[in-house]
TrEMBL record:
Keywords: NAD, Oxidoreductase. The active site is at E372. CDD domains: ALDH_F1AB_F2_RALDH1. This is Aldehyde dehydrogenase 1 family, member A2. It comes from Salmo trutta. GO terms for molecular function: oxidoreductase activity, acting on the aldehyde or oxo group of donors, NAD or NADP as acceptor. Signal peptide: none annotated.
Length: 604
């Protein structure tokens, strides 16, 4: 249907990354920023330090561009083209030249393996007051590459004493008369825009670190995560001087108006599945409104968030406005949630931890809370849907990011007449999904984030088998190294099975059957979650009926994961409180103050 195709093409940068062709295209899609070179891999010799070479896959397909050669080990297939594309990016991150051949420092810190760029070393500490500091306790914790299971580095571990220091810096930066409080709103916007420019400048470098730290495939990370991060920062940069109050025609001789004022010090706790993008989702609206921030990245994936700290300082943000504390939830996270000097906390993660944060906020100073939590999201496929589209979108909706998405459409309800055919096609598609090294350009799916998460997903798969679901494909761990899992499909799934009720957060697709629209509405809503839902149909009446009936914060019609910075995002029920993104995201970071002035006489 033409209308449907137009609606899908509206969001080329945020739809799940499609399967790559056997050979990379000679040029980037036209929707990408013009500042990127015509051939993406051409930027890698200049943008990726030579010391990253051991982290890249040694086994390369014949179609890999030759411009990757300088970043790889000496063993290359003979079929690579002999010449490199002439286009290289005009600017490089300031720290990169130290890592390039000929100027590689000889004095790497002992905790850094050869594969970690030396220029990242200063960013492995705690970022407070625009300075890199060791933790008060002196503790560090290891960060691992989930694709290999090997340690990347050690990072300073923030605890309560470090949170106290960060809050003190943030409160000082928020004091009346401070540089930050007296700064024009347009200047706040300029700083956010500058930060976006720096992220864009270092995008290949950040995508490399993100892939190494989280196991995400490099190309989707560059095209989806980095682009989403940049767009979010620029969106809120533009909003900074457009947050307006209103005048109110109050009864009597009064002049009344409202001001939207910053809340104060905001604690922000981000997850490991989209570290960079969640950093932007949190920082953008908070800074646009004039708040200061104490931000804790997930202990599994702190590296790109910490690198953002170096860009914050380079962009020119005043000291204390943004503070970044790597650490663990029960220590640093709990200290943020319960701190009397923090005025608001925002958290993205599991529902279980979200409950603890809301409880801690209530027991301390009743700080404002925004929660974006779990989901067990329904995806409803009617018999009149475009089956090819529905199968592919359902596949991407579950398996994107190795299933580690709160929006994963893991409960797929298929109308009875097409059930068997949908299952057959879904199994075929899952078997074609490529799982492998994040730096192999043909890889669609990387590893799970950790051995603990891999074990958890495999336990869910075993429970599905034991409870009587039919395992159509997959179901096992992959490889001798890393935390990979085969794309897994279950059919004949019943609503009371664990795999149909609980959030798995892994590459596991559950396909269920329904007969009537009333039945599927009741079953789809029969969950404690309410984050997103989707429906595939050619009947607009069915589509609108489902979209109205779903108890979810977002409903997609004939598409999936169509997220954009302009659109509010959040959940019903136990999927969270409040909204992120769009203008609704700004409301979560501002207080409305009513000011009334007594005047001698009022005229209309």
């Amino acid at each position: 249907m033409p209308g449907r195709q137009e609606s899908l093409s509206t969001f080329p940068q945020i739809l799940p990354f499609p399967s790559l062709p056997p050979s990379l295209p000679p040029s980037l899609p036209p929707s990408l920023p013009p500042s990127l070179p015509p051939c993406l891999p051409a930027c890698l010799p200049a943008c990726l330090p030579a010391c990253l070479a051991p982290c890249l896959s040694a086994s390369l397909p014949p179609s890999l561009p030759a411009c990757l050669a300088p970043c790889l080990s000496a063993s290359l297939p003979p079929s690579l083209p002999p010449s490199l594309p002439p286009s290289l990016p005009p600017s490089l991150p300031p720290c990169l030249p130290a890592c390039l051949p000929g100027s590689l420092p000889l004095c790497l810190p002992p905790s850094l393996p050869p594969c970690l760029p030396a220029c990242l070393a200063p960013c492995l500490s705690i970022f407070i007051n625009n300075e890199w500091q060791d933790s008060v306790s002196g503790k560090t914790f290891p960060v691992y590459n989930p694709a290999s299971g090997e340690q990347i580095c050690e990072v300073q571990e923030a605890e309560k004493a470090d949170v106290d220091k960060a809050v003190q810096a943030a409160r000082l930066a928020f004091t009346l008369g401070s540089v930050w409080r007296r700064m024009d709103a347009s200047e706040r916007g300029r700083l956010l825009a500058k930060l976006a420019d720096l992220v864009e400048r270092d995008s290949a470098y950040l995508a490399t670190i993100e892939s190494m730290d989280s196991g995400k495939p490099f190309l989707p990370t560059l095209f989806v995560d980095l682009q989403g991060t940049i767009k979010t920062l620029r969106y809120y940069a533009g909003y900074a001087d457009k947050i307006h109050g209103t005048s109110i025609p109050m009864d009597g001789d009064y002049l009344t108006f409202t001001r939207h004022e910053p809340i104060g010090v905001c604690g922000q706790i981000i997850p490991w599945n989209f570290p960079l993008m969640m950093t932007a989702w949190k920082l953008g609206p908070a800074l646009a409104c004039g708040n200061t921030v104490v931000l804790k990245p997930a202990q599994q994936t702190p590296l790109t968030c910490l690198y953002i700290g170096s860009l914050v300082k380079e962009a020119g943000f005043p000291p204390g406005v943004i503070n970044i504390l790597p650490g663990f939830g029960p220590t640093a996270g709990a200290a943020i949630a319960s701190h009397m000097g923090i005025d608001k906390v925002a958290f993205t993660g599991s529902t279980e931890v979200g409950k603890l944060i809301q409880e801690a906020a209530g027991k301390s100073n009743l700080k404002r809370v925004t929660l974006e939590l779990g989901g067990k999201n329904p995806n409803i496929i009617f018999a009149d849907a475009d089956l090819d589209l529905a199968v592919e979108q359902a596949h991407q909706g579950v398996f994107f990011n190795a299933g580690q998405c709160c929006t994963a459409g893991s409960r797929i309800f298929v109308e009875e007449p097409i059930y068997e055919e949908f299952v057959r096609r879904s199994v075929e598609r899952a078997k074609r999904r490529t799982v492998g090294s994040p730096f192999d350009p043909t890889t669609e799916q990387g590893p799970q984030i950790s051995q603990e998460q891999q074990s958890r997903v495999l336990e869910f798969i075993r429970s599905g088998i034991s409870e009587g679901a039919r395992l159509e494909c997959g179901g096992k761990a992959l490889g001798l190294k890393g935390f990979f899992i085969e794309p897994t499909v279950f059919s004949n799934v019943k609503d009371d099975m664990r795999i149909a009720k609980e959030e798995i957060f892994g590459p596991v697709q559950q396909i269920m059957k329904f007969k009537t629209i009333d039945e599927v509405i009741e079953r789809a809503n029969n969950t404690e979650y309410g984050l997103v839902a989707a429906v595939f149909t050619s009947d607009i009446t069915k589509a609108m009926t489902i979209s109205t009936a779903m108890q979810a914060g977002t409903v997609w019609i004939n598409c999936f994961n169509a997220l954009s910075t302009q659109c509010p995002f959040g959940g019903y029920k136990m999927s969270g409180n409040g909204r992120e993104l769009g203008d609704c995201g700004l409301k979560e970071y501002s207080e409305v103050k009513t000011i009334t002035i007594k005047i001698s006489a009022k005229n209309s």
